[in-house]
Write a structure and sequence with these properties.
- Helix content is 45%, strand content 29%.
- The protein has one domain: Aminopeptidase, CATH 3.40.630.
- By secondary structure, the chain is of the alpha+beta class.
- The protein contains eight helices and seven strands, in the order E-H-H-H-E-E-H-H-H-E-H-E-H-E-E.
- It is globular and about 45 Å long.
- Strand 6 (181-190) and strand 7 form a beta hairpin.
- It has a seven-stranded mixed sheet, with helices on both faces.
- Helix 1 crosses helix 3 (35-56).
Length: 206
Amino acid sequence: MRFQEAKEEDLTMIAELLADAFLNYPLFTIIEENKAKRYQLIYEIYYINAKLYMTKHKCFVVMDNQNLVGVALLKDLQDRPGELLDYVRFGFPRLFKQRLLTKAMKFLKLVNSTEVPMSKKYGDSWYLDTFAVSKKTQGMGLGSEILQNIFSYIKEQGGGQLFLATNTKLNCKFYQKNGFAEYQEKDLTLDGHSVKDWGYCKKIPA
């Protein structure tokens, strides 16, 4: 398997993998009840997000021959200004055309309510925005292997604190197993519904 930076031609596969991986994720089920519409919403959101990360940050993929089996979107928290405006600029035409703009904005509202500690307090900091493996590879150790590649990349860049957020207890156990420590637990609310949000961090030495 190859861990590498994504290319433009990978966008469709990335969006498909992430839409499949996050179809029943609490963060999306409170936004859209209908499963087919939810899949379309997640697909469009992550198509845009992956394109944004390819341009401004880092979008990593894992390929098994020609098959995409893992995705990770990583950003340096020193480079945070204008993120929402960039997202709108990259995605407004797609979301407007698909009549998904309102629900996509609800998703961004939830995501932006998840506070990440300011990098000044923690020194050099990184944020793992999105991370998933294909369903057929779950339970095979691929997720931990991808994290090790991400740790190595951050180490090469001088190290720092790596932050992430998750909304399921199962994911919490996975990140704890890979050396992350919980720093925050909170409720995210939208239209009378709420989901748990756990924040994790791990120190990556230089």
